[in-house]
Amino acid sequence: MTQTGATGMTPDEVEELAVDGLRWMLSGARDTGGGGLGWPVRDSDDDVDPMFYNGTAGVVPVLLEAWRHFGDDTYADRALRAARSLVDVVDEYPDDSLYFGRTGIALVLRTVHRELGYADADSAAGRALDGVRSRFDGTRWGDLFELMGGNAGIGLGALAAGDADLAVLALEPYARTAETTASGVTWEWRLGVAERLHHMSHGTLGIAYALAAVGSATGRTDFVELGQAAVADVVARDEDGPDGFLAPHSDPQRRPDLIERHSYGWCHGPAGDAHVFRLLRDLTADPAWAALAERCWHTVTHSGLPERLRPGFWDNNARCCGTAGVLALACDRIAEQGDSPDFARVLVADIAAHSVRDADGARWSNVEYRNTPSDLEPEPGWAQGNAGIVRELLRHVRIGRGGDPAYAFTWPDQPVPRAQATDPIRAAGVDGDAAS
């Protein structure tokens, strides 16, 4: 077993790493019966999990990415088999959210139908979204009230899956539950929790992103205006101006014994915040949003990441909280404004340096420095594992070769680069059929 130590890689070398990552990921698939395939959260787990965050649904996007990238129908076959396992369980799945539940699974199924013509996936997606609608209590679906696990994500996913009415239904409660602050509005992210979170995954900006995207696509200008008021609250909390942008994780600080005040990735930092500003830039044509996106990038590139400067500073390789999520933004910037690829190459080299490659393929361990041993078990899925990392590597390869920077399947909380999308519906990551 060897750990790679690359400092500069050709597109062919990055592609080889991605192939090894796919091979390891595919080796962990489990037969679910009836020709289906599923993935557990961790290879050591006994049971498969259908959720998007780190289960089977989150593997499908990279299978579609690999199918498009290589033209190899083996990956399409695996995507179909994964969808078959999702069809079998989605009707009774207990969670309704985008990342952890039926909305995300429904969006994946609808995408498999669109890309591969699997009619059972389409009908199962429709039933799943009807089931989500049936469990709405008039305000929310559960304790979470944000993007990953709550209304904002359900709205985004429903819109992308073609159910604009459900998207509007999910977002309407934000108007009557907004808390007025000195600079804008915010929300309780989890029922009964005092801290207010500010960023994409669980905080104000994730809600603002959904309000802006759904509002623009459905003609609800009140949503867009409310989203902008939410962004104003977070902008007022910036602690890295005037050149940078760095808002704290939460106020008052949540779990200061475990969580640092500032993060830098997609979930709780400027790598994710920039997507909100990019979306508003494209929807409003106000140059102030472009300036805020630039400030986010300044902070990211001057933070020291991906170097692991101290225990706990940058211990994650993955899409949600780590280097692959920053690479997604770096490649967006290359695609839409011709950024230098140098920082993206630094990120790719770091991903390669932290891979473990052997006869089984390549995988990545994130780190919890307070544990002994500190290396966490590798995962196959989207948020913390191979699927999310390999998807970004394949896109980086295409960009490096002058090819198409578009994903095979755009997840709805990342705007399509404006070089590929000139109208606001496409900029919000929604195709024309979904918005109609």
What does this structure look like?
- With 436 residues, the chain is mainly α.
- Helix content is 49%, strand content 6%.
- The strands form four sheets. A three-stranded antiparallel beta sheet has the order 1-8-9. It has a two-stranded antiparallel ribbon with strand order 2-3.
- A hairpin with a 2-residue loop joins strand 8 (355-358) and strand 9.
- The model is unreliable at 1-6, 422-427 and 431-436 (pLDDT under 50).
- The structural class is mainly alpha
| Helix percent band | 40-55%
Strand-and-helix sequence, N→C?
Answer: EHEEHHHHHHHEEEHHEHHHHEEHHH
Query: Strand order within the widest sheet?
Result: 1-8-9
Number of helices: 17
Number of β-strand runs = 9
Share of residues in strands: 5-15%
Q: What sort of overall outline do the alpha carbons produce when their principal axes are compared?
A: globular
**End-to-end distance, in Å?**
52 Å
User: Radius of gyration from the CA trace?
Assistant: 20 Å
Biggest beta-sheet profile: 3 strands, antiparallel
Outline of the structure:
This protein is mainly α and 436 residues long. It has 17 helices and nine strands. Helix 3 packs parallel to helix 5, helix 9 packs parallel to helix 11 and helix 11 runs antiparallel to helix 12.
What keywords describe this structure?
436 residues; mainly alpha; two-stranded antiparallel sheet; 17 helices; disordered N terminus
Question: Which secondary structure elements does this structure contain, and how are they paired or packed?
Answer:
Elements: E1 2-3, H1 11-27, E2 30-33, E3 36-38, H2 56-70, H3 73-89, H4 102-116, H5 119-134, H6 151-160, H7 164-171, H8 173-177, E4 179-180, E5 185-186, E6 196-197, H9 204-218, H10 221-235, E7 250-251, H11 270-284, H12 287-301, H13 323-337, H14 342-353, E8 355-358, E9 361-364, H15 386-400, H16 424-427, H17 432-435
Antiparallel strand pairs: 1-8, 2-3, 4-5, 6-7, 8-9
